[in-house]
Design brief:
With 89 residues, this protein is an alpha+beta fold. Helices cover 36% and strands 17% of the residues. The protein has a domain of 60 residues.
């Protein structure tokens, strides 16, 4: 096969393969996920500590929540409350 014949064939195969490729999912804005982890404490005022299995947020004495950093290759799960405020007697 001559090189002049191979180039158009490779180009045609490349175009056909790219036309059949599934669309990539839209990229999520990392700030949206961050807001939901911080927003959890705003929506549940009795929760003092919550986690998504990657990061943990804690609130003490009504102060703004403080959250840990995400670990490498961590896959977040649903946010859950792990410690609630004790009821005042």
């Amino acid at each position: 096969m001559r090189a002049a014949n191979v180039i158009p064939m490779v180009l045609a195969l490349t175009l056909a393969a790219s036309a059949q490729a599934p669309p990539s999912p839209p990229l999520q804005d990392p700030r949206a996920e961050e807001a939901s982890l911080h927003g959890y404490g705003d929506s549940d005022k009795t929760c003092q500590e919550w986690t998504d299995s990657c990061r943990t947020c804690q609130r003490s004495d009504g102060a703004e929540p403080v959250c840990s950093n995400v670990g490498i290759a961590c896959q977040p799960k649903a946010i859950t409350c792990v410690r609630r405020a004790e009821e005042k007697k």
